[in-house]
Amino acid sequence: MTRLLHLSDPHFGAADEATARAFLDCAADLAPDFTVLSGDLTMRARRAELQAAKSFVEQLPHPRFVIPGNHDIPAFNQLFDRVFRPFRRYRETFGRDLEPSLRSGAVEIVGLNSSRGIGFHLDWSKGRLSPQQLDQAAPRFGKSSPGLRVLTLHHPLLAPPDHRRDVVKPLPPLLSLLAAARVDLVLCGHFHQSRIGVIGQDATWSTIVSQAPTVCSTRLQGEPPGFHVIHHDGDSLRVVLHRFNENRFVESGSLELYRDQSGWHAGL
């Protein structure tokens, strides 16, 4: 049995300290095998925000896997940095690699950076992947799966029914990548809403998507802070949602899934 702790969007600069502390206490008690933080560590990549986020990350259980989000890029009052060196401050704090990889035991994790400082579209918060990123992602996975292949990016693949914001683009080639690499699980965030589902372009392969809510931000989107714990055992996987209730995190629902030759499916 392998357990992954998936959290997202702490947004230091707009984080509730008591909720962040409660999460760290809960994470220590859970003692997961891996901890994955899928972006938006800060609000505007201000230095004080980055230092608060660094202190938080350093208290997460090992091994840790962290990628940036669109809020980890300076805002328009730091326009030069946003345009010409959008991830300079993030790299100075968390390391130069914006797309890390990790392979340990039964788990292999590959990160993709879906955030951009500028673009030809009006909403620069939207997630985009380049053709080069997509072409190079599959070879980053090993020739054989250790048991669970995980892709991590900040922007989501599943749009809630009541949400008008876009999912990551371009989605069709990303789905082709998931099928070609036989990725088991995608971890992402951004919407501040919990969603667990299965996605696939055709019948060849289906991948689980874990979209975690914000773990401790005050910028809520209709639900309290929370996170996911993923329990993997061979061809079975269970995603458990934990939500903040008064002064602690408690389990608040789960989804069982199983794997066959065509990928993952929700249990009956």
From TrEMBL:
Write the record's keywords in alphabetical order, separated by commas: Hydrolase, Iron, Metal-binding
Domain Calcineurin-like phosphoesterase, chain residue ranges per copy: 3-193
Going by the entry's taxonomy, the superkingdom of the source organism is recorded as: Bacteria
Looking up SUPFAM superfamilies in the UniProt record yields: Metallo-dependent phosphatases
Family label: Belongs to the cyclic nucleotide phosphodiesterase class-III family.
What is this protein called in UniProt?
Metallophosphoesterase
Q: Which organism is it from?
A: Luteolibacter arcticus
